[in-house]
C-alpha cells in the first residue's frame, strides 16, 4: 500500500502531471482517447452484436440511415452498411484493430530504432556512419510507398487467402520496419550528448560492460524524446494502416479496421449512403487528432524552453 501511495505521490507531484491537469487541450484530448480505448476494449459489452460474424447480420437491415434522420431506426444509432452491419459496432471493433496495429507497430519501431541508435551513438566511427547511412537511405523513400510495394509483392506471392490470415502481423511488421529511422536518429543524437558526461565515464572506469552502460545508464536519460516520438508515431501508424486498408492492402473484410470500413462504404458515397464512409472517417480523424494533440503537448512540456503553460 505504501509503495502504491509513494508511486501516486511521485506522479501527482511531477511536473508533467502538474501541467497536464491545468492544460485543457491535453486533458480533453486524453479523456477522449481514454474513452475511445475503453470503448474499443469493451466493444463486445457495448454493442448489440459482433459485426464480423456474418450469422448475426440481416441483409434486410442494410443501408439504414442514422437514427436522427427520418428513415432511421432506433436499433442502429449510426445506421447500417449494405450488409446490415451496425456502423457503431463496426467502428468500435475496427478501432480495436487499428489501435492494436498502431501500438504494436510503434513498439517494433521503438525496439529497432532504440537499439540501432544506441549502438550508432555509443560506438561511433564506421559503425555510426554505416547505420546512419542506412537510415538516410530508408528516409529517402516514402514509408507508405515502400509499404505498398512490399505488401503488394507479398500478397501476389502468397495469395489472397493466406495473406488475409496473417494481414495484421504483416501490417505490424511492415509499418514497424519502415519507421525505425525516426527513433534511431533521435536516440543517436541523445547518446552523443550523454556519453561524454561524467556518470558514463565513471561507469567505464568501474568496468561495466558496454551493454549495461548503454541500457542501464544512458537509455534512461533518453526516455523523454522516446515518449514524444512514440505518441506521434502511433497516430502515423494508424493513418498508414488506414491508407493501406483503403487501397485494399490492409485488413480483410472479415476483420475490418477503420480504413477497411471507410473503403467498404466509398462505393456508396455518391448514391446517398454517406454515413457508411463519413462516420468512420470522422471517427478516424478524431482519434488521430487527439493523439497528435497529446504528442504536441508532451513535446512542449518535456522541453521547458518551449513550454509556456
**Tally of strands:** 0
How many structural domains can be distinguished in the coordinates? 1
CATH topology: MetI-like fold
- Separation of the first and last Cα atoms: 33 Å
CATH architecture: Orthogonal Bundle
Characterize the largest beta sheet: strand count, sense, and whether it forms a barrel.
none
Task: Please give the count of helices.
Answer: 15
Give the helices and strands as they follow along the chain.
HHHHHHHHHHHHHHH
CATH class: Mainly Alpha
Helix content: over 70%
Structure class: mainly alpha
**What ranges have pLDDT less than 50 throughout 5 or more consecutive residues?**
none
Average predicted confidence as pLDDT: 83
CATH superfamily: MetI-like
Domain ABC transmembrane type-1: 95-295
GO biological process, one term: transmembrane transport
Transmembrane segments: 25-46, 99-125, 137-156, 162-180, 222-253, 273-295
Family: Belongs to the binding-protein-dependent transport system permease family.
Describe this entry's structure for a reader:
The protein is an all-alpha fold and 309 residues long. It has helices at residues 2-12, 15-20, 24-41, 43-46, 87-123, 125-139, 143-158, 160-165, 167-178, 180-194, 198-205, 210-218, 223-246, 258-266, 275-301. The longest helix is centred in the middle third of the chain and has 37 residues, at 87-123. It is globular, with a radius of gyration of 23 Å. The model has no long low-confidence stretch (mean pLDDT 83).
Amino acid at each position: 500500500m505504501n509503495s502504491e501511495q509513494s508511486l501516486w505521490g511521485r506522479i501527482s507531484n511531477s511536473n508533467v502531471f502538474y501541467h497536464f491537469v491545468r492544460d485543457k487541450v491535453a486533458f480533453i484530448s486524453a479523456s477522449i482517447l481514454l474513452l475511445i480505448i475503453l470503448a474499443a476494449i469493451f466493444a463486445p459489452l457495448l454493442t448489440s452484436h459482433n459485426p464480423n460474424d456474418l450469422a448475426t447480420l440481416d441483409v434486410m437491415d442494410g443501408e439504414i440511415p442514422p437514427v436522427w434522420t427520418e428513415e432511421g431506426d432506433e436499433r442502429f444509432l449510426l445506421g447500417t452498411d449494405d450488409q446490415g452491419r451496425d456502423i457503431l459496432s463496426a467502428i468500435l471493433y475496427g478501432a480495436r484493430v487499428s489501435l492494436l496495429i498502431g501500438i504494436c507497430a510503434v513498439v517494433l519501431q521503438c525496439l529497432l530504432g532504440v537499439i540501432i541508435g544506441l549502438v550508432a551513438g555509443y560506438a561511433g566511427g564506421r559503425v555510426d556512419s554505416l547505420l546512419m547511412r542506412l537510415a538516410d537511405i530508408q528516409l529517402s523513400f516514402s514509408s507508405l510507398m515502400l509499404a505498398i510495394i512490399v505488401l503488394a509483392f507479398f500478397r501476389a506471392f502468397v495469395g489472397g487467402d493466406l495473406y488475409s490470415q496473417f494481414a495484421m502481423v504483416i501490417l505490424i511488421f511492415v509499418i514497424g520496419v519502415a519507421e525505425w529511422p525516426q527513433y534511431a536518429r533521435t536516440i543517436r543524437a541523445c547518446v552523443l550528448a550523454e556519453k561524454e558526461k561524467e556518470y558514463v565515464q565513471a561507469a567505464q572506469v568501474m568496468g561495466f560492460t558496454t551493454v549495461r552502460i548503454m541500457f542501464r545508464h544512458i537509455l534512461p536519460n533518453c526516455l523523454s524524446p522516446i515518449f514524444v516520438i512514440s505518441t506521434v508515431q502511433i497516430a502515423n501508424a494508424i493513418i498508414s494502416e488506414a491508407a493501406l486498408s483503403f487501397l485494399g492492402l490492409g485488413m480483410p473484410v472479415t476483420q475490418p479496421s477503420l480504413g477497411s470500413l471507410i473503403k467498404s462504404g466509398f462505393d456508396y458515397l455518391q448514391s446517398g449512403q454517406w454515413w457508411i464512409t463519413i462516420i468512420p472517417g470522422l471517427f478516424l480523424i478524431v482519434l488521430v487528432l487527439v493523439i497528435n494533440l497529446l504528442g504536441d503537448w508532451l513535446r512542449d512540456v518535456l522541453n521547458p524552453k518551449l513550454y509556456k503553460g
